[in-house]
Amino acid sequence: MVPDFSQDFFALFGLKRAYRIDGAQLDQAYHEMQGQVHPDRHAHLPETERRLSMQWATQVNEAYRTLKKPLLRAHYLLRLAGAETDHESNTAMSPAFLMEQMEWREAVAEARAAGEHHELENLMQRLEKHGDGILAEIERSLDAKKDYMAAADAVRRLMFIEKLEHEIEDALEALESQD
Amino acid sequence: MSAAPHQHRLAVGIDLGTTNSLVATVRNGIAVVLSDENGRGLLPSIVHYKADGGVDVGYAAQGTQASDPRNTIVSAKRFMGRGLKDVSHIESMPYDFLDAEGMVRLRTVAGVKSPVEISAEILKVLRVRAEASLGGELVGAVITVPAYFDDAQRQATKDAAKLAGLNVLRLLNEPTAAAIAYGLDNSSEGVYAVFDLGGGTFDISILKLSRGVFEVLATNGDAALGGDDFDQRVYCWILDDASIRFPSIEDTRRLLLKAREAKEMLTSHDVAPIHVELGTGEQVDLTLKIDTFADITKTLISKTLGPTRKALRDAGLTVDDIKGVVMVGGATRMPQVQRAVAEYFKQEPLTNLDPEKVVALGAAMQANVLAGNRAGADDWLLLDVIPLSLGLETMGGLTEKVIPRNSTIPIAKAQEFTTFKDGQTAMSFHVVQGERELVSDCRSLAKFELRGIPPMVAGAARIRVTFQVDADGLLAVSAREMTSGVEASIMVKPSYGLTDDEIAGMLKESIDHVGDDVQARNLREQQVEAQRLVEAVEAALAADGRLLRADERADIDEEIALLKKRIAGTDHRAIKAGIDSLNAATQDFAARRMDQGIKRALTGQKIVEFKI
After folding, report:
1. A9-68: what CATH class?
2. What is the pLDDT of residue B297?
3. Cα B513–chain centre separation
4. CATH of the domain at B416
5. What gap in Å lies between CA B465 and CA B480, rounded to an integer?
6. Which residue range(s) make up the domain with B472?
7. Tell me, what's the pLDDT at A117?
8. Where are the alpha helices (DSSP H) in B197-328?
9. Closest residue by Cα to residue B71 from B54, B91, B88, B92
10. What b-and-e string marks burial along B296-328, b requiring 16 or more CB atoms within 10 Å of the CB?
């Protein structure tokens, strides 16, 4: 028998289905849920219960991760609302945005080539701030306006930002391993 | 979901270390290290194979390190799950290596031995010690592993434990084990760093402690960096300073031992004299000053700081967020290590628990809980992570990450692939672990093939590959063609570990060796297993029997009665069949109990807004 995972992640943690969530409440619900289902709680029990426990704990971890990270949470809400972001096929972004992206990318590449640790961290901070602005936009679109088209567009933009942030992290790591 | 309250189940925590190993248990609510008959808690991780087929382990094997270096294996942990090319300083090791598929083997006077078998000898001694000391058979053991151990190394450790006749309750990360021992001792809250420099491995873990939950935020490390490397540096310094060009393997071992003694002396002295008489009769007479020692090991210390920075960054934290730093592992006794850690974290590290025992003590506490001896006060929860990303090889020898490092376990992820040729009926997969982009820079874990895909045009098949990492941090991979349901799956094991058949074979051999009767052992194992199951089901019925309809209850009762009757008999196969059938009869019951637990967790939060 496969456990019933059809429940949505918000309901699983007893949260209202919305972008804005109470992080502390999510953490607490997550800990309490894992307190019930985690494999360590069932290690002394028969095989059936241990397997069930692993499946549930896996599901609870996935649910937590999805709701904890703003971008994943926004994605998930769009999916629940039937408004997929089609990030694979839909790459039509505004020329202004793409231009901005190119500028960011060049700045990262330059700082990396010059080994400017400080500049990379600087860029990271600016990007994060930029990302926060988009997150605020996502929250307005999803929770207040219920404008899923606008939210999906913002989510796609944020994905570009996150990708850039990963590139900066890689660059920082590469510089550090040279030290 | 607690066990029958009437009995205490014997469980132990084992720290299988590079240099020393320990076994600990919880006795009257307190974790204690179990000592040998001479009152010594540490067991040196040394195994000596003798020509007559006998094996000495620990202190008994210590004396033959220099006289019979080829057959006296030290630091076998460094070879676990490793190929010949992965082992550093191989040139100064006195062993006769054989590069076997997956894992290196050592040729000894008692035959070819795998690191798994060598480690099993150490674990066996600890199991016997525990059973003698506790007066009964163990329900199971928690075995600790470096947090930075990859899948192959974890699997090898689990295999060694099985080979030693231990039921593995869990593989537990060493820094996490230390955190349990520390955290529960001090009832701490906040974010802590555990800096664990052992004999051969380095781990750094960042943990958040809150209301009995130990949540690992990030871990990093170096699975080939430890106290041994400091010995190695001193050894090289001796060779250099005394102008020794080509030491014999006996002299190498002698000098390494002296190097270690000097290192240990320098934790409390400013100078360490080194006197050795070489095999040639030549006298080596040197003095190692603490400044020189710090100087020649500087690069080793800085090798710990890179992983530390990475772990902090992965946790999204800075040094200022760290409330305390816990020191673990014998190598953290070195003053220059403590200084470097204090400097980096801008605070004095915590050393109030013995850094060599704290891992075993934490493991014992966790073993006690996992065995079902949970008391009210032991209500803690561990949420650990995988240390290294898991992925698949894609076109051009590149890695596609499926599960990123520092994901909380257990975790499952699926990825879809498709065929690239018309009529393609098979697809092969290469599972790798590591952070690098090129497959050749990552560790290869397994290769497998999905066959029998119905011929379709290119791109029409939908092949879903699922990675599942369990609570031990071990990976299982399966692939399934979604339109036809054709399936293939593997435990990621054959290429780096031993197959279950190999383990069974070795186990049988070792049992034959001591003259035990396999049949009797099988019967006893099945009886114990069946008894455990009956008790668990009866406890569950007592607690949650109301979740069952009368007819369902009657079915289960009948299965219990039948199994009890079989336990009294001597047919181990009949008992096994009874176990399977009782397990099957209680599946729905188990699922309902789990649902109930989940509802309980929700209502525990007193949340009214359940649905929008």
Report:
1. mainly alpha
2. 95
3. 27
4. 2.60.34.10
5. 6
6. 390-500
7. 86
8. 227-241, 249-265, 290-296, 298-315
9. B54
10. bbeebbeebbbbbbbbbbbbebeeeebebbbbb
**Cβ–Cβ gap B605/A32 under 8 Å:** yes
Nearest residue, CB atoms, B601 vs list A15, A33, A45: A33
**Look-up of token digits 């029998």:** B452
Residue limits of CATH 1.10.287.110 in chain A = 9-68
Torsion, Cα A125 A131 A132 A136, to 10 degrees, reads: 170
CA distance B190 to B184: 13
- CA B566 – CA B170 distance, rounded (Å): 30
CA distance, residue A96 to nearest chain B CA (Å): 31
Which amino acid, one-letter code, is at B385? V
Of B171, B174, B170, B183, residue with least CA distance to B205: B174
Residues B496 and B536 in one domain: no
Q: What is the rounded (10 degree) CA torsion for B521, B525, B531, B533?
A: -160
Task: Please tell me the class of the A95-178 domain.
Answer: mainly alpha
Decide if B447 contacts B439 (C-beta within 8 A): no
Q: Annotated active-site positions of B, please? A: 15, 77, 174, 196
pLDDT of B262 higher than 80: yes
| Domain co-membership, B542 together with B590 | yes
* Cβ neighbours of residue B370 closer than 8 Å, sequence gap 6 or more: A40, A43, A44, B11, B140, B142, B169, B170
Q: Is A146 on the interface with B (CB under 8 A)?
A: no
- In this structure, of A82-96, B291-305, B309-323, the range with the lowest mean pLDDT score is A82-96
Q: Which residue has the tokens 């570009």?
A: A160
Helix (H) or strand (E) holding B10: none
Q: Helix (H, G, I), strand (E, B), or coil: what is residue B32? A: strand
Tens digits of residue pLDDT in B212-247: 899 999 999 998 899 999 999 999 999 999 888 888
B431 has which bridge partners?
B392, B446
- Residue span(s) of chain A under CATH 1.20.1280.20 come to 95-178
A151 touches chain B (CB under 8 A): no
Domain count along chain B: 2
Determine contact, residues B261/B273, Cβ cutoff 8 Å.
no
- Are A40 and B170 within 8 A, CB to CB? yes
- The structure tokens 């290290």 sit at B33
